[in-house]
From TrEMBL:
Monomer. The lineage of its organism: Eukaryota, Metazoa, Chordata, Craniata, Vertebrata. Binds 1 Mg(2+) ion per subunit. Pathway: Amino-acid biosynthesis; L-methionine biosynthesis via salvage pathway; L-methionine from S-methyl-5-thio-alpha-D-ribose 1-phosphate: step 4/6; Amino-acid biosynthesis; L-methionine biosynthesis via salvage pathway; L-methionine from S-methyl-5-thio-alpha-D-ribose 1-phosphate: step 3/6. This is Enolase-phosphatase E1. The gene is ENOPH1. It comes from Acinonyx jubatus.
Length: 261
């Protein structure tokens, strides 16, 4: 088995979710279709609620920022004029969400609404989050060895907690010391990793970030974070240069902590 030795200065392991802890297929075939199929009904049911209105306002702001993009779907300002206007507004939000999802966009606005929509599905037991089988044993071992384990995903913190709280392995939320999402910054920006280190109270070189996306690995590395690229079934392929440049692992069990036995 290939072994990747974790540098002695690393005290924090920062994990991506999709393509790293969790199969991309679970996200693409279960989580995302649930949103596409249920977004209209969800908006109609929850429209009057404050949380839903906050989600719509955030989506509207994002739509304004996106107005220069090809195919962007605007969301009109609320006029408060009648049922037809309301249905038009809901349809605009639905079209905007579907347009963003067709591009797999990682905007905070989209991710916030998705997290709120998944809440009911997880709570009702309609969905259980999938984790690769090596994830839970490895995380337990790292924690026993004194490592802190944090999550950094484009999925909202609320969505992350739903996944860890309702997994096929049971409630594994207690295995995580903390969560970060795009509110701290985007995963392809190195400043995000500096802010994460600052928030945890460590130096960037105390962190090892595991991700499937080389653009994220590159941004983290620029901030002096240690990185390893995770190769999982169903992940996007890597170029030969990427395969040569990055440390690669196919399972968390390939990480060797000098402090553990
Ligand atoms: C954790 S929520 C579900 C996945 C999701 O919406 C997402 O965008 C995952 O992105 P990641 O940064 O974990 O690759
Ligand atoms: Mg990922």
């Amino acid at each position: 088995m290939v072994v990747l030795c974790v540098p002695a200065e690393v005290t924090v392991i920062l994990l991506d979710i999709e393509g790293t802890t969790t199969p991309i297929a679970f996200v693409k075939d279960i989580l995302f279709p649930y949103i596409k199929e249920n977004v209209k009904e969800y908006l109609q049911t929850h429209w009057e609620e404050e949380e839903c209105q906050q989600d719509v306002n955030l989506l509207r702001k994002q739509a304004e920022e996106d107005s220069h993009l090809d195919g962007a779907v605007p969301i009109p300002a609320a006029s408060g004029n009648g049922a037809d206007d309301l249905q038009q507004m809901i349809q605009a939000v639905v079209d905007n969400v579907r347009w963003q999802m067709s591009l797999d966009r990682k905007t905070t606005a989209l991710k916030q609404l998705q997290g709120h929509m998944w809440r009911a599905a997880f709570a009702a037991g309609r969905m259980k989050a999938e984790f690769f089988e090596d994830v839970v044993p490895a995380v337990r071992k790292w924690r026993e060895a004194g490592m802190k384990v944090y999550i950094y995903s484009s999925g909202s913190v609320e969505a992350q907690k739903l996944l860890f709280g309702h997994s096929t392995e049971g409630d594994i939320l207690e295995l995580v010391d903390g969560h970060f999402d795009t509110k701290i910054g985007h995963k392809v920006e190195s400043e995000s990793y500096r802010k994460i280190a600052n928030s945890i109270g460590c130096s960037t070189n105390n962190i090892l970030f595991l991700t499937d996306v080389t653009l994220e690995a590159s941004a983290a590395e620029e901030a002096d974070v240690h990185v390893a690229v995770v190769v999982r079934p169903g992940n996007a392929g890597l170029t030969d240069d990427e395969k040569t440049y990055y440390s690669l692992i196919t399972s968390f069990s390939e990480l060797y902590l000098p402090s553990s036995t």
